[in-house]
Amino acid sequence: MDVEMKVIQCAACAMAFAVPSAFKDARLEDHKEFFCPAGHQNFYPGKSDVEKLQEKLKARERELEMKLHLLEQARKEKNAYAKARVEMVKEYLKEQFAKLDALELRAVAEHFRPLKIYDAMSVVRLIGGYDVKRGKNGFVITKNKKKKENQ
Question: Rounded to two decimals, what is the model's pTM?
Answer without folding.
Answer: 0.55
